[in-house]
Design a protein that fits this description.
The chain is of the alpha/beta class. The chain has two domains: 122 residues, Response regulator (Rossmann fold), CATH 3.40.50.2300; 95 residues, Winged helix-like DNA-binding domain superfamily/Winged helix DNA-binding domain (Arc Repressor Mutant, subunit A, Orthogonal Bundle), CATH 1.10.10. The protein is 42% helix and 20% strand. The strands form three sheets. A five-stranded parallel beta sheet has the order 2-1-3-4-5, with helices on both faces. The longest helix has 20 residues. It is elongated. The N and C termini lie far apart (45 Å).
Length: 227
């Protein structure tokens, strides 16, 4: 039985989600503030976390940041804040998904099933090597390090995942929909230019300092790392 931790300060919402998840066969725990949520996370094993942003004590963004330092557990942020920068910040902190209140419970259940399946497939995927590379660019997915000409490149979580995907598909052009699905792990409902934004972030840290250009745009199709 898959176990879900709900970190939500609105007790009626938390209780409603709990009942629906239990009906679907999940084991559920609830925390009503950030500190209690972190405490439960540290003292039990969960398969997924539903995390509100506006929490007393420690807010959801900080809770997500602390959890992500220790674990790659799937996190779905649930919030009434629907601005694009709120979604970007939540995803950048390490959340896999971001759902805006109010929402249909059927949509939440669908996203939970999809995310759990995606993460399970990702974890079960066999890897031949810890390192991916293209010319002088090297990425170690186990130590979470990226080197360019033996100099370390500091990347955020999503930048790292995007670069990893491009290197895994070296010389193969990836469309935006493919990148959104693989990096964010769900059907993205926000601004479609988020891929272009993160490509620019990567280029500023890699192509702008490298002798060779690594990330190429194929107009009307997508992006590719060529070697």
């Amino acid at each position: 039985m898959e176990r879900v931790l709900i970190i939500e300060d609105e007790k009626q919402i938390a209780r409603f989600i709990e009942l629906e998840l239990k009906y679907e066969g999940y084991d559920v725990d609830i925390a009503y503030d950030g500190r209690n949520g972190l405490d439960k996370f540290h003292h039990a094993n969960y398969d997924l976390i539903l995390l509100d942003i506006m929490l007393p004590g420690v807010n959801g963004m900080e809770v997500c940041r602390r959890i992500r330092k220790e674990s790659d557990i799937p996190i779905i942020m649930v919030s009434a804040k629907d601005e694009i920068m709120d979604r970007v910040q939540g995803l950048e902190m390490g959340a896999h998904d971001y759902l805006t209140k109010p929402f249909a419970i059927e949509e939440l259940l669908a996203r939970i099933r999809r995310l759990l399946k995606w993460c399970d497939n990702k974890h079960n995927k066999s890897e031949e090597s810890n390192e991916l590379s293209a010319k002088e660019l090297k990425l170690n997915w186990q130590t979470y390090e990226v080197l360019l000409d033996d100099s370390k490149i500091d990347l955020t979580n999503k930048e790292f995942e995007l670069l990893k995907l491009l290197l895994e598909n070296k010389n193969i052009v990836l469309g935006r929909d493919k990148i959104l699905n693989e990096v964010w792990g769900y059907d993205y409902f926000g601004e479609t230019n988020v891929v272009d934004v993160y490509i620019r972030y990567l280029r500023s840290k890699i192509d702008d300092v490298a002798e060779d250009k690594y990330i190429h745009t194929v107009r009307g199709v997508g992006y590719v790392i060529k070697e």
